Amino acid sequence: xxxxxxxxxxxxxxxxxxxxxxxxxxxxxxxxxxxxxxxxxxxxxxxxxxxxxxxxxxxxxxxxxxxxxxxxxxxxxxxxxxxxxxxxxxxxxxxxxxxxxxxxxxxxxxxxxxxxxxxxxxxxxxxxxxxxxxxxxxxxxxxxxxxxxxxxxxxxxxxxxxxxxxxxxxxxxxxxxxxxxxxxxxxxxxxxxxxxxxxxxxxxxxxxxxxxxxxxxxxxxxxxxxxxxxxxxxxxxxxxxxxxxxxxxxxxxxxxxxxxxxxxxxxxxxxxxxxxxxxxxxxxxxxxxxxxxxxxxxxxxxxxxxxxxxxxxxxxxxxxxxxxxxxxxxxxxxxxxxxxxxxxxxxxxxxxxxxxxxxxxxxxxxxxxxxxxxxxxxxxxxxxxxxxxxxxxxxxxxxxxxxxxxxxxxxxxxxxxxxxxxxxxxxxxxxxxxxxxxxxxxxxxxxxxxxxxxxxxxxxxxxxxxxxxxxxxxxxxxxxxxxxxxxxxxxxxxxxxxxxxxxxxxxxxxxxxxxxxxxxxxxxxxxxxxxxxxxxxxxxxxxxxxxxxxxxxxxxxxxxxxxxx
Length: 565
Description:
It is built from 22 helices and 14 strands.
């Protein structure tokens, strides 16, 4: 038990007697009250393959806590599946669930005066949700990733869940048969684990490892492999020692740690969602981090890993050739990460990387040598212009053309946009605009995986641009720009775009521009009126009222209180 919590208990004296009686009912004996009490928060559910294995990992963590001399307390958190809700109204709850998860972990840990917490998560939102909670509470904490799914196989190809979305576009374009479409669906997801490419879950697990909040190598293990269960137990043992030594998140989640995470995300070709989540984590811990910092690091760090969605390989391939530690050692050698950043083990990043070779092994193409990168600069570009004065996020890998100027095709929702693509009403050279899907406007900032995958499947990935105030799945690639801020719902310029307007996306100039005279934009702005919110009650209504801009991480406490001191 930490000194602060121990002193609190002693001060309360006999008032604690009823509390001890309650704990005896759940298995505490006389000798257990002097042990650190460790929460094990996990998002186990059978709703999604990402989280179906978390119950077993929680049991492994429980055994590790007991072995290390702690007293475990298990509790659950909610979760939803992005992949299942994608393209539906239910997807509006996805980003919202991040805040619900963070709030729930904070509530349990502080409400029960826990001495530390292990968070076990396996999908896009329970991961950053857990980290936001850890940052807020500042009690010793460690994150255990549920693990990646193994690839599916069909017709000689490795499959992921994104393969199913792209197959819809291919079928619509007449490129595959109905039988092929069904076969891809049947084989894409063969078992437990998170989506298998460098999509959002694997991106965030890699970031947490880079930040020192997870054990080395743990971020790329397969959910169904024995090493994942062992890693969960070891994580618990490490956490109990961190409680004894009082190694706290605010010592680990520093500006240097966040910069390390961004550098690794760029090197592995990670998800656009990482920008949103790292901004939110920085806000929770009280570290100044701006959207422009991502662009500065992008210009220094090359893409070293040939991973899906825009590359060839999946996370299990990445793990087999050295995973995140190998990439970090390469970046450390070049002075691109901070080796003196602390980790939950009590060692620094540089100390943990001592035995890792400075160059990747030969005979593989998953991790490229530093002087032979997949791309010379990072892939997550921050674009600005009159369409995004606060910034927007573009994924710049996997595209042949980095500039497009074309007529706007304007849609007020994801569903309308998808239907137009499937009906072949979108042509090469168009710039698709999907608006009122932002944090407030949706609300919830839905991911546009269905439209972007349909564009790829139709063979238009290099010929059609798409911009939105919503988000993109980690599986998205192509000439796409998300997180456009300010969003349409608050009167951002994206709300003023009219059908046929000329729009320029220029990744080389970091430009997102509506090519309309200023005088005309002034006229349109004066005529614009905010829409009635889609939801006024319940969790979506509360979220829409409280949520900040995507350029600030789409957090729900910034506007109320300002950034944490």
